[in-house]
Amino acid sequence: MTTQQQAADAIFGAFNAAWSVNASYPAVWPGKTPEVEPIKQTNPWAFVNIVHEAGKQLSLAGADGKKLWGRKGRFNCEIYVRIGSGTEEAYTLARSVELAFLGKTIDGVVFRSIQLKEMGNHGDWFLICVFVQFEYDEVI
What's the CATH code, domain 4-33+42-139? Predict the structure, then answer.
């Protein structure tokens, strides 16, 4: 069974494998100071986070007193591409993130619904988001 930290590691690992193809495109991770301030550069960049949305008990306690819990949540990836460069690169990057999760189960984390959503212009950047629904079971 998967813990919340193991789920986060699996999710961020899948994203990182897809995103690292573009070595000069930074990613901003939760709780970490970025190595490069992405907003001050011209390369595309991404902000990622995980939001756990639900957790419910799925079983009664066993002989060891532990219960099965169903966890659900959403992985959010915001991709920023400089305005003036068109939308093609934004869609290409969003698709690479989508394919990292589409139809996959990684380390017990099942990925379900994936949505690409164009958010439009934000300052000097065009923003497109990738939202990935996930679920996994945890024994506590």
Answer: 3.30.2000.10
> Which tokens in the block code for residue 89?
């690169």
Kindly report, residue by residue over 89-139, the tens digit of the pLDDT.
999 999 999 999 999 999 999 999 999 999 999 999 999 999 999 999 998
Task: Output the CA angle 29-76-90, nearest 5 degrees.
Answer: 90
Contact 87, 95 (CB under 8 A): no
Residue 65 near residue 140, CB atoms below 8 Å:
no
- Core vs surface per residue 105-132: b (16+ CB within 10 A) or e: ebeebbbeebebeeeeeeeebbbbbbbb
What is the model's pTM? 0.90
Q: How far apart are CA 119 and CA 129, in angstroms?
A: 7
- Do 132 and 116 touch, CB atoms closer than 8 A? no
Contact between 125 and 118 under an 8 Å Cβ cutoff? The reply is no
- Tens-digit pLDDT profile for residues 47-72: 999 999 878 887 788 778 788 889 99
Using CA atoms, how far residue 99 sits from 19, 34, 72, 76, 114, in Å, is 11, 25, 20, 14, 10
